[in-house]
Amino acid sequence: MEVAIQCRNLRKTYDQKVEAVRGVDLTIYAGECFGLLGPNGAGKTTTIEILEGLLTPTSGEVEVLGRNWQTHERELREQLGISLQETRLSERLSVRETVELFASFYRYPNSVESVLEELSLGEKADAWVGKLSGGQKQRLAVATALVANPKVLFLDEPTTGLDPQSRRQLWDIIRQFQERKGTVLLTTHYMDEAERLCDRLAIIDHGQIIAEGTPAELIARLTGHHVVEFAISGMTDGSDDQVWKRLPGVQGVRTDDGLLCLQVNEPHETIPALLAEVCKQGARLEHLTTRQASLEDVFVQLTGRHLREE
Amino acid sequence: MADTAQQARRTNGRWAGYWHLLLARMKELQREPEVIFWVFGFPLLLALGLGIAFRDKPADIASVVIVEGPNSQKLVALLRQSPEHGAIRADVLGERTTLDQFRLGKYALVVSMDDQGVHYRYDPARPESVLARSQVDDALQSAAGRKNPINTVATAASEPGARYIDFLIPGLIGMNLMNSGMWGIGFATVDMRQRKLLKRLIATPMRRSDFLLALMSSRLVLMVIEVALLLGFGALVFHLRVEGSLLAILLIGTLGAVSFGAIGLLTACRAQKIESVSGLINLVMMPMWIFSGVFFSYERFPEMVQPAIRALPLTALNDALRAIILQGAPLSSQFARIGVLALWGVLCFVLALRWFRWS
Ligand SMILES: Nc1ncnc2c1ncn2[C@@H]1O[C@H](COP(=O)(O)OP(=O)(O)OP(=O)(O)O)[C@@H](O)[C@H]1O
Ligand SMILES: [Mg+2]
Questions:
Q1: pTM value?
Q2: What distance in Å separates residue A83's CA from the closest CA in chain B?
Q3: Predicted local distance difference test score (pLDDT) of residue B158
Q4: Architecture of domain B62-143 in CATH?
């Protein structure tokens, strides 16, 4: 498989004290959608901006499309579409004028009209940017990246702050870009987004990659496929995890927000045993649900924290 | 779908980015009512206001007040007899009000008379007060029979070319070029940096030199409008006579706009917040407002600081504009001033480029 983006042992220290990125290795293949998933301050933006050639790493090597930033900057810029985490575009230009402006920087840009159409901005083409809603502004930011007719698309938190419908719309746009053989690197702190949109992802925390793989792989490797959550009262034995760990098919136990969570592969084996145990202890079951395991569980398993601390 | 996209695909030439940047900048400016006011409206209002203020109040009429008393009518009669009675307006008021009005500045001089003679009460710090004293004194003395040993003839210099408004208009043009250069480049750059737009722009293949060039070009377009507006306004409303060539004026204007653009760029080269650059811009402009002879001649300042004042870019610009507009001086005679302006421009531009931060 052809490699689109590669970096080795990437480090970035701000002002000689803040270690934002601490040794990141990534290999992203052409045509895939790769996600960097992590909580606030994890180092996602720093990493992606180094890969975009906008920040110089303190140490480490970066290669994009087989070239590096020191020697081939112009050539690379022609082939990348970039959307930063927060850019406030000029409010007094219209949507079309803004996309036209960005198109004019590239030698072979996409047609402005077709990009506006694709991002459902056709109706708003003549509206001033200042008058757009948050979601429309996010789509415009992606439009300025797509009009480059890029081989690689970098999107830093493209869906943060969007309602579920706008998010899905943006996912569709990203998938269409991928269908045209495009490579996508995006950052997010929504695990459902990472799970559904990304072919592969890296979970990043405190500037380091703590897990990498396809969403299904990560879930299968690190937790059971299912999570059984329950609450009980009147337990004689205290809340000793060992009791639950001994149940058949249980791979891990944790408490989360007052609920006990069992990571299991076969709920139909575990649940009857769980009920029997509750009975034997003379306790009463207050609550019981089972659900599919998610990347959130992976993250909690790895760090003991939630991805988004409310 | 893919086919139509293929057909619609275009190829951009070398200058497409530059033109679009310039176009976008001009559109933005045009859509910003505040900018239109500060760049075009404000200087015109200033010229109008100051022009009228100094035209409708000929400086040589002295307002004086005579203290009511046994001799007040005699004083009035004496003043009326004098050959200069047209230049003096005298009111008679009670002693109390007299002093109040004098203190408030309505009258320049208080005159009273008793057995010892005529008393003047004047304020040596107010030029018109000093002037009124000598005018009234002259008038009284000659009315009382003094003969002047030499005959003199005075002509009022109120024809176009020698009035305050003639001095003012070139100064306003200079000040305007400074203001809009500093704000138009300095403020705009930091605003774009704060909005992360600069960073977004350099994430494209846009040439950084094109960006700076477009910014400067937009200033030049505005410069032509600013100069034409103020000159045209002066000519139409105040019958200002433009003695020098328009080409020379535009060339000096271009140099001024570019130099102040460079100074603006240097002020803005690192600032992250518009608040900090606003302070910086005002700090840089303040001394020039005061010292560079916009509203009054800098000859009033002590001899010692004159060389420093002449080294200021706005002084060079104002002096060159005045020489060309009012005296019809050729461009070649402005060599030194052009040198001063150009030196500031080049120096600031080089430093700005060296220290400039895009993010
Ligand atoms: N310019 C900077 N100077 C100093 N420290 C910085 C700078 N930019 C980021 N940091 C620090 O580096 C760390 C990583 O920041 P980064 O922006 O990469 O995180 P992130 O994963 O993108 O977070 P978020 O989800 O909030 O966008 C943070 O602790 C941040 O405070
Ligand atoms: Mg970020």
A1: 0.82
A2: 8
A3: 60
A4: 3-Layer(aba) Sandwich (3.40)
